[in-house]
Write a structure and sequence with these properties.
Helices cover about 15% and strands about 30% of the residues.
């Protein structure tokens, strides 16, 4: 389908440690299609989320997790 970008929001930190770190923490992923493969970029805490598709997006992972509670 070649979707340019999709997001995974793991607010409960259920993902594998190889993806969300040790200790596990809530993680926001931006998955971008690069040369036919998806590159997963993790964001945690107050780090601003960077989205190639939505460059004007100005929220951090923590701000999104706070909205989910």
């Amino acid at each position: 389908m070649e979707i340019e970008e999709y997001w995974i929001i793991d607010y409960a930190a259920l993902g594998a440690r190889k993806f969300i770190g040790n200790p596990k923490q809530p993680t926001f992923f931006v998955c971008s299609l690069v040369d036919g493969e998806y590159q997963m970029t993790p964001f945690t805490g107050n780090t601003p989320i960077v989205s190639p598709t939505f460059p004007q997006f100005k929220l951090s992972a923590q701000q999104i997790f706070n909205l989910a509670l």
